[in-house]
Fold:
Amino acid sequence: MKLKKKNPKVGFVSLGCPKASSDAERILTQLRAEGYEISSSYEKSDLVVVNTCGFIESAVDESLDAIGEALNRNGKVIVTGCLGAKGEIVQKTHPSVLAVTGPHALDEVMSAIHDNLPKPHDPYTDLVPPQGIRLTPKHYAYLKISEGCNHRCSFCIIPSLRGDLVSRPIGEVLNEAETLVNSGVSELLVISQDTSAYGVDIKYRTGFWNGRPVKTRMTELASALGELGIWVRMHYVYPYPHVDEIIPLMADGLILPYLDVPFQHASPALLKSMKRPANSENNLERIKSWREICPEITIRSTFIVGFPGETEQNFEELLDFIRLAQLDRVGCFTYSPVEGADANNLPNHVPEELKKERLARFMEIQEGISAEKLKKKIGSIETVLVDEVQGEQAIARSRADAPEIDGVVYLSNAEGLYAGDLVEVEIVNSDGHDLWAEPPSRI
Ligand code: SF4
Structure:
């Protein structure tokens, strides 16, 4: 006879106001959707969630009592709701709770429940691994932290397609990062439309990760990701003043010394007409101070030449900037109108021929800078991440190379290496884009 498998049971205690009740409803709905049973008995539950209130002192006492009762009668307790936002009180009074999350934290509560009481098998969704289905190789993954953008750059239509910035809860982002690392990922690439603005839409709300409060903010995110012991690469970081905070994390080896900052131009007049974020920053000064704090930093950027109204003088300002900035990795494109973008209506469009000529002049200077910089690496020992092995040769990347957009390191004598291996190599040759390296010694 086949025994019917019992679904896991969750007990639920909810205290407080209608907002707390609405949170409770969302959690209960999600629990049922995932196949958990809701139990009205402490003793018959496999785990108890206490949704607390912390508005006034008597509510705090009532919540702490409810947690105490659940611990006595069941033992496995997850705390959520307003008192959870004051995580220290809960953990000090009841150190044995399994996890503490704040209000409106559906994802964090669900993830704490999954960690302590795995969800029942679902033959439809369980074919999908916990890290979801990814299009990147197994050893690196993109980590999207927000959607949309609050800026209105005149050449871009992303905000009209995707709306204003919506940041993902930090607990959810960090849980996803942890799941990816557990599935074998060695490198996480943090992406969004505007990484430095992470959390601004939710006033940098404090979220929870593994029961610990963490602010929804770029520095705090980078620092928490740095604890995972893998490569963390930051993309699409606009040069707001607070970006300076993450450079010491690079110097300390917590995240990769790599910053992708799309400057797009250097002429103040053009940046203004492009309506670029942080367009009044003195970027040369910033770059200098970043290099003082973290000398090995790789700075990557992209630029547009031939934007409407770009004069020869504006373009010369851009060339001066790239000569002085000595950026490590640079992409440059000629301006091309996108349907629906405001820049289409600007006067003085630059003729195609002139755009191409400016692109060629720009690239000639930048290629010289890149080639010189790569040449200086010859003879150095670098740690590289193997992306692909083809017979005796492997294609790898150093800490200075993001996949798809930067250069690669070609390794000879690579037998026995596999994609995802981290190896130390000696750089023996270079060109304007890539490096060549000699037999690795495995880390
Ligand atoms: S910052 Fe500018 S270019 Fe980037 S997505 Fe927002 S509007 Fe578009």
Summary: The two ends are 53 Å apart (CA to CA). The chain is about 30% helix and 25% strand. Residues 352-375 form the longest helix (24 residues). The chain has a mean pLDDT of 88.
